[in-house]
Write a sequence for this structure.
């Protein structure tokens, strides 16, 4: 009853602002109000909602890719004023001013996505940094600090896309399959399909990021290890926000199977093309560094997080097997042939270690050592 009353009052107030005669504006306002989180109904003003609707519809009318969107996609993936549970602010006008000039001249949504990705880092002046004040920062908070977590960066990127009529949603996992952390990124809707990207995009475009190998090993039946995307409208599921684990206010869609399928396709294609080789990486106690590998045993192994890079581009990550795992169980990366890679791992004190490994056209056994 309270929800219906608030809805009626908001719609009536919106009408008093002069736009209710426009069915497009009325539909957009209705969609926001019906599906908005309960806390927002108590705090957001009608003028705030009206501004959001006006700028969203301006983008829809101005950009051809936005005009061509189905109403259901526009309403759920372009119109919303929030990404997750970040502090609410009126970001649309500012972001339109930043990104509309960047995509002028683009004729396809693919071109527009590429241009936003290309310019966003310098345009907003924000870098990844764990020293940020909090995880779920609003765009202005991240821009004031010049830093954000992957969550904060993804919030900015979703808003940047939406400001120029590109359907975008927040995605991520509460925990990787090997418990070495979590991650957030962004999905964009192109030609009836969701594609993934992130704030620091790979040069090769959509559906090509370092985390695919991890997302592709998610568990669709385990909420914590599944991959999720955010929805504005209710789905019957809540997006698992690791920074606010008790909250069920953000709706989620379980998209794990899509990432499993994509990862399998990539690995199958690499195997057929013969372009990649397996690199097996193991971490050991420092005291066995001079011991013949054949004479080491499982008790000598150390479980630690490992990331692998080609220059500045992250190629993947994982966690090595510890002393209780089967000796045949190792962290294996599938990497392009004939290149050098930097492996980085951390000890219990948080000290980073790294090693450069040359990969030719044959499988590689590589190892790192950690002082205990």
């Amino acid at each position: 009853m309270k929800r219906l009353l608030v809805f009626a009052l908001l719609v009536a107030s919106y009408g008093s602002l002069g736009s209710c005669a426009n069915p497009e504006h009325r539909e957009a306002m209705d969609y926001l109000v019906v599906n908005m989180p309960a806390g927002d109904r108590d705090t957001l003003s009608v003028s705030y909602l009206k501004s959001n609707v006006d700028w969203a519809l301006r983008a829809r009318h101005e950009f051809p890719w936005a005009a061509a969107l189905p109403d259901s996609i526009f309403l759920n993936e372009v119109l919303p004023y929030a990404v997750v549970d970040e502090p609410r602010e009126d970001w649309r006008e500012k972001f339109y001013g930043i990104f509309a000039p960047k995509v002028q001249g683009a004729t396809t949504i693919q071109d527009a996505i590429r241009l936003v990705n290309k310019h966003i880092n310098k345009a907003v002046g924000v870098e990844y940094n764990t020293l940020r004040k909090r995880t779920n920062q609003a765009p202005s908070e991240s821009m004031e600090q010049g830093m954000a977590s992957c969550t904060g960066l993804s919030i900015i990127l979703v808003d940047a896309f939406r400001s120029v009529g590109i359907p975008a949603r927040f995605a991520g996992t509460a925990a990787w399959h090997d418990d070495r952390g979590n991650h957030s990124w962004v999905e964009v809707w192109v030609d009836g399909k969701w594609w993934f990207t992130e704030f620091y995009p790979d040069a090769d475009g959509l559906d090509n990021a370092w985390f695919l190998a991890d997302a592709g090993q998610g568990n669709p039946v385990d909420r914590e290890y599944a991959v999720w995307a955010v929805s504005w409208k209710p789905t019957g599921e809540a997006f698992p926000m690791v920074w606010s684990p008790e909250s069920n206010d953000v709706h989620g869609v379980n998209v794990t199977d899509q990432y499993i399928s994509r990862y399998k396709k990539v690995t199958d294609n690499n195997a057929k093309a013969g372009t990649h080789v397996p690199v097996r990486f193991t971490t050991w106690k420092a005291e066995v560094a001079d011991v013949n590998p054949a004479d080491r045993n499982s008790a000598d192994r150390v479980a630690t997080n490992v990331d692998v890079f080609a220059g500045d581009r992250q190629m993947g990550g994982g966690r090595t097997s510890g002393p209780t795992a089967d000796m045949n169980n190792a962290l294996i990366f599938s990497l392009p042939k004939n290149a050098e890679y930097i492996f980085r791992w951390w000890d219990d004190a948080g000290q980073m270690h790294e090693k450069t490994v040359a990969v030719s056209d044959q499988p590689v056994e590589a190892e790192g050592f950690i002082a205990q």
The longest helix spans residues 256-273. Residues 136 and 314 are 24 Å apart (CA to CA). The chain has a mean pLDDT of 91. The chain has two domains: 79-265, 276-370.
